[in-house]
Specification:
Structural class: alpha/beta
Helix content: 10-25%
Distance between the termini: 44 Å
Mean pLDDT: 95
Oligomer: single chain
Order of helices and strands: HEEEEEEEHEEEEHEEEHEEEEHH
Radius of gyration: 22 Å
CATH superfamily of one domain: Transferase(Phosphotransferase) domain 1
Strand order of the largest sheet: 1-2-3-4-5-6-7-8
Length: 412
Amino acid sequence: MHTLSQLKSGKLMGIQRLKLSENLSSFPLEILSLADSLEVLDLSNNQLTSLPSVLIKLKKLKIIFASNNRFQVLPEVLGRCENLEMVGFKSNQINQVPANALPTKLRWLILTDNCLETLPDSLGERPKLQKLALAGNKLTKLPLTLAQSNNLELVRISANSLTECPEQLLRLPKLAWFAFSGNPFSRTNLNIASVPSVPAASFTLHNILGQGASGVISGATWTDNPLALPDKVAVKVFKGKVTSDGYPEDELQACLKAGDHPNLVRSLAQVNEEGYLALIMSLIPANFNNLGLPPSFKSCTRDTFPADFTLSISQIDKIVRQMEDVFEHLHANQVCHGDLYAHNTLFDENANIIFGDFGAATMYHMLTSEQQTLIQQIERRALYCLIEDLLSICHRQEQDSPKFKIIKQKIH
């Protein structure tokens, strides 16, 4: 985090990334003094409603964040920023995206949690677009021009007002990660009771084990345990609002519909009380670690890994076989995970995996048989991307091995 006083004093000259959060109501023109170096500008958590036309002077600007401000219209000046690739305006009050507000080099657009009902046709005329996050709006339709977005790989349209499945997305050649729950076309009356309900007062939360967009996972112990569940459990308490992936209640239902599998985090019970939604799960053994790291700005949709991290071909083979089994299990239960990634996978020293994080998951039993087949094809691409990513970190001396070549054939 930087300060406005640092900027005004000239102490930030030459920096490539600037982050200012000081309840700003207007764009500090001193930012223009960084025109020769600035590539990432983060103005999130302010009170901004507009951006000046002089923003185009930031010739090297590639990424702009302005989440949690007061924008009602996506600024048109963004479309004139010649090198801008990533635009993030999450959690504003945006109800309009002008046709010329989208940069020609746009790769990544985040408009989650706004007030949009429509989007311009120009969205489908951005050939480099790879990632599109639109959850939590009021969209009733998507531009038909998206059918030509041949590089689009990840789409989030959950928690909108779409009455029909957007067919223009289903046949995109590279789409691999797709979340679409919480729309009229994907709504379901299922209320899955595959695990028992327990009162929130029956357990005590302890240390935080992890947290994400949809909730916080904590260790917990029982104060009242009539079901004789394990003494120590993990509890995910869902946030009570729309997230980057959709509604928490949709995540819970999809997780329960997925059912039990040896390589999925096991669900034990649920809490469904007014203002309190939670899932009680088995604790994951301490010897399990993250298989990958989330995508970076550069990789956009693909996982990243620590610089020196490698796996043997035997480990990769075992992980792939388990993940293929998980894939078949999920789709046999008509659940699209939507986030099939190494960073949502845990593994141990014996290459056993546990897969989780159903934040982007969608039940799709209500779709036509043809649509269901296309959804499966979309998620199979995500599986192939995961396999490809794992092969990229294989021990170098094993990359010419027969087993490496056999696994590689799966993705061609």
